[in-house]
Predict the 3D structure of the following.
Amino acid sequence: MLRSIVVGGALLLLTPGLGTAASSYQLTDAEGVTHFTNAPTDPRYRRTPGLSGTAVGWLRLPESVRARYADEISEAALRHGVSPALVESVIRVESAFNAWAVSRKGAQGLMQLMPQTASSLGVRDAFDPRQNIDGGVRHLRYLMDRFPGNLPLALAAYNAGENTVYTYRGIPPYVETQQYVRRVLELSGGAAEFSRSIYRYEDAEGTVTYTNLPPATRLRLR
């Protein structure tokens, strides 16, 4: 028997006692609602490797692919003071190391920079690996400084936007963003910073937010 909860407008189907990790198929319907289940009843469901927002980036990749942009990653990471492992993990989840990747929303290149963001970072060619990586790492560094000591929030802002994180005062209740943060942290060795549980918060105005971020690490604004 399946049970479900609504997270940020997306229906998340869960098996009893197993939580979200049990989901292995997903379907986005005509209204943009994403459904996850371990027992698909509709042929439109597609198998998901683990939990997936950008699923293709989470597959096991050959070492030759991972090493293809090692120099560019190391240089940008050193230049901006970001862990190379974190940069590699972001690229893996964002584009699966495809320098020509373009998302449905128009994000481009290895680190999936939106055109406006790329322009503000001085990236003239988002499909040039060196430019894209340097711009993406610089943007990630900026977000890490905006949310000091809270890498999950910086990653959430990279995926969903800085203002969205401030609006929800934490990781937004978007299934894609929550899974994105979790997967990047898992790949970079920072999974301990992100809980696998789902927490429910209700503010003074009665607004309910569901998030995987535990209370101790939620964003506090004064």
In short: Residues 20 and 141 are 30 Å apart (CA to CA). The two ends are 44 Å apart (CA to CA). The longest helix spans residues 129-146. The helical segments are 63-66, 70-80, 84-95, 115-120, 129-146, 151-160, 162-168, 175-188.
